[in-house]
Specification:
Shape: globular
Protein name: Pentatricopeptide repeat-containing protein
Largest sheet: none
Structural class: mainly alpha
Strand content: under 5%
Pfam families: E_motif
GO molecular function: RNA binding
Distance between the termini: 31 Å
């Protein structure tokens, strides 16, 4: 590989994620949820807590009681050891009556 042409993975990933965010913002309302959900799933894999929070927020604006989104965001915070946020999500789920079906994993780590 030529010197100077190789970009660090993190820079490339950050650029791609930002381009994806711009794309999702520009598409129709129905498709948006799938775009944000895909981005949320990528945040689990790449341990991106902040972008995961933003993605989950957008999904939950469209699908208020989506149990998978709540569970994935809870897992992102738990992996980052942000226990206060984990407790907050659990309280929010309880308040909204959102329950994750037992024995089903929504996230792949």
């Amino acid at each position: 590989m030529r010197q100077g042409l190789e970009l660090p993975n993190q820079f490339t990933l950050a650029s791609l994620l930002q381009a994806f965010v711009s794309l999702v913002k520009s598409i129709s309302h129905v498709v948006k949820c799938y775009g944000w959900w895909s981005l949320l799933s990528a945040c689990v894999v790449h341990n991106d807590v902040e972008l995961g929070r933003i993605s989950a927020q957008h999904v939950l604006e469209i699908e208020l009681e989506d149990e998978a989104t709540h569970a994935i965001l809870l897992n992102i915070y738990a992996n980052a050891r942000r226990w206060g946020k984990v407790a907050s999500i659990r309280k929010s789920m309880k308040r909204k009556g959102v329950r994750k079906e037992q024995g089903i994993s929504w996230a792949v780590n």
